Amino acid sequence: MTDSVDDTIDAFRARVARGECEELTWWHACQARIEAREAGVQAWEYLMPATSTAILPGTGQRLRGVPVGIKDIIDTAEMPTTWGTGGYLVSPEAVVDAAVVTLLKRQGAMPLGKTVSTEFAYFTPGKTRNPQDLSRTPGGSSSGSAAAVAAGMVPLALGTQTAGSIIRPASYCGVFGFKPTVNTVSFSGIKAFAPSMDTLGWFARHIEDICTTFTALTRAESIEALPDLGGIRVGLRSLPGDRPLDAGVAQALSNTARHLEQAGARVSALPLDPRYDDLVAHHQVVLAYEAAQSLASEFQQHGEEMGARLVELIEEGLATSYAEYRASLLAAEECRQALSRVFADEVDVILAASAPGVAPPGLDATGDPVYCRAWTLLGVPCLNLPLNTGQEGLPVGVQLIADRWQDERLLSIARTLVPPAG
Amino acid sequence: MTDSVDDTIDAFRARVARGECEELTWWHACQARIEAREAGVQAWEYLMPATSTAILPGTGQRLRGVPVGIKDIIDTAEMPTTWGTGGYLVSPEAVVDAAVVTLLKRQGAMPLGKTVSTEFAYFTPGKTRNPQDLSRTPGGSSSGSAAAVAAGMVPLALGTQTAGSIIRPASYCGVFGFKPTVNTVSFSGIKAFAPSMDTLGWFARHIEDICTTFTALTRAESIEALPDLGGIRVGLRSLPGDRPLDAGVAQALSNTARHLEQAGARVSALPLDPRYDDLVAHHQVVLAYEAAQSLASEFQQHGEEMGARLVELIEEGLATSYAEYRASLLAAEECRQALSRVFADEVDVILAASAPGVAPPGLDATGDPVYCRAWTLLGVPCLNLPLNTGQEGLPVGVQLIADRWQDERLLSIARTLVPPAG
């Protein structure tokens, strides 16, 4: 079933139910795909041995037989964790799996390996290359998860986002990436970076699988497409407001706006208060202050081995006063409440750029999360839609954004917009 | 210096500066006090060997030479962690210290041992007894930290609160206990229970030391007493509203109200919206749903060894739908915003009961956190004031509460109210 690595999760389960393939079929197909492509893509920090008993699917049903990649800042009891350090900090095995790993296993998913993360999910790149063009970055920090899903090595992979670490690599690699409302899935057993913003999310090639995984992890009702998007109000917005848009990004936004309108939605420009433009700067203050706290032990013991940009951020955090930090949090809270009123009164979802353009050339940087920072600071759910291509045929994503805890509505709207798989 | 175990941190540092004692003097005095009282109180899960090099104070100044107790759900690289499991889950040493342990060490504090926690900081009691009456509970979940501070074994100890785990044991043991605004100090390396509410805080015998520790951990400006409390508005409130108050608690509230008025404050009853009375129930929904997620791995592997009440909570969480969870979070958010308006327009701080009475007799339960649940759900800072005694001369605390991120103002008001030590 080399073709069926592109099944949706539900289609695979239906094939198993009809006796057309085995529960371990997907696992073996993924291993074959990894064998074919890993030398180029280098998405994996560690792979489960093919003979491991851990490949036996669990007792749950929703994700039964689904191979999944686990970002390497997430604790695993049966695989090592290196937090993207290249080896200066390693845990051969955690005392217990991170909570989300057990939640996945409970539903029958099978962790296939640890995917490459940048150093502690910040900017120092790992070895991973963009599967669409091996000379380009896959984005970060969830580099290996986005690349593994894009290369068809795995149908599902976990990522985390504190600035733009899910939406940006999803945009660069051309896959769906979903960052739910902050704190939707427990961060227990995942290395903290800036705890008020750290959010667990996931990548998939099909919107259906993004929805299935949301249901599996939260135990929400299953998310279905609407008949059409009649009555749905979409606000078009690019943060920060004063940056000129890349032509490919502008094209992706207008294409998507047109598709939304064709499905019945009403799209209009969304003017926001100028205070929103300050959120990028407030995000940086919160990021630096909290990272300097959360990584205090790692900095104390391994500061000399750390990448220059991480050291710079921690030092910036150590120079940030509590008063500045508090002021940025309070400014964010004001915008969060104001944005909730916008969502209540004016729009159902916001359409915005995911990244400043296609994946930049080179492997020594992971691109700019600037279009994600404000949304992450506000804690709202964001979904990258991989429906457009830009310069040199490379993917250009756009994101749909909803108010906090409107994840189901957001996913339902996206599922209506995106043509069904297969 | 057997007497000087009761110094404030600043007084001790001044004595060291004047050459009246050594940097390690307090450490040795604490060890002597532990030797004298630990057989009865049983506050410690693990004690650093007296000869350990870890007792050498760090390079920082604010907490230089201060022995500190670390709650046993907090990772330590040089001491084992058991999470109050009585041994069914043990980590001999963490890969790195929890962030807060490094933040303390950086300021010169010296972790002296791990203090007893209830099982994963929920309700299954550990071995600790109340130093004021060994036949009674010290409260939970930060049982050992509150008891160790109350027994003079250590001037400072870390606790965590997700329901009433700092304020209640502080009230029962008769010490100051401070829960700052949620997410003030990073939870990195601390076992999560319900991440949207889990809050790190600390216990001390002196309000000055609560303030010094706040400054040391956040790098806020130092917190001083005001000239008096003229102009300060205090709202008197007991949540949930329909519970009859214990006579000792009522007396403690009216005594404290009188002291506040004597210092110049204006105290008046604070009528709150009836929706606040539902917060206790919403807290339970959030607690159960998030605990079932966060402890998924521990439940999977050790469910049969877990205490009955924890299993019951996790099963309640597994039976809680995402829709119920979301509804409780949104109800809390409404009250949080409404309470911010109350703090902006009507009162500076709220005065409320810490616990339903003195420490209950017996060691098979840790008392009721009902008076803390709403405040913890709202994420507001709470300080237990140990200024009153009730039935049989046992301590009865009251708490002062401020709006989120008004921690400095809250501590400054408390410092003005409480007579200076020594």
Automatic annotation (TrEMBL), chains A, B:
For this protein, the record's InterPro entries field holds: Amidase (IPR000120), Amidase_dom (IPR023631), AS_sf (IPR036928)
| Signal sequence extent | none
Q: Residue limits of the Amidase domain?
A: 30-411
| Pfam families linked to this entry | Amidase (PF01425)
Lineage: superkingdom: Bacteria
What this protein is called in its record is Amidase
UniProt organism field: Halomonas rhizosphaerae
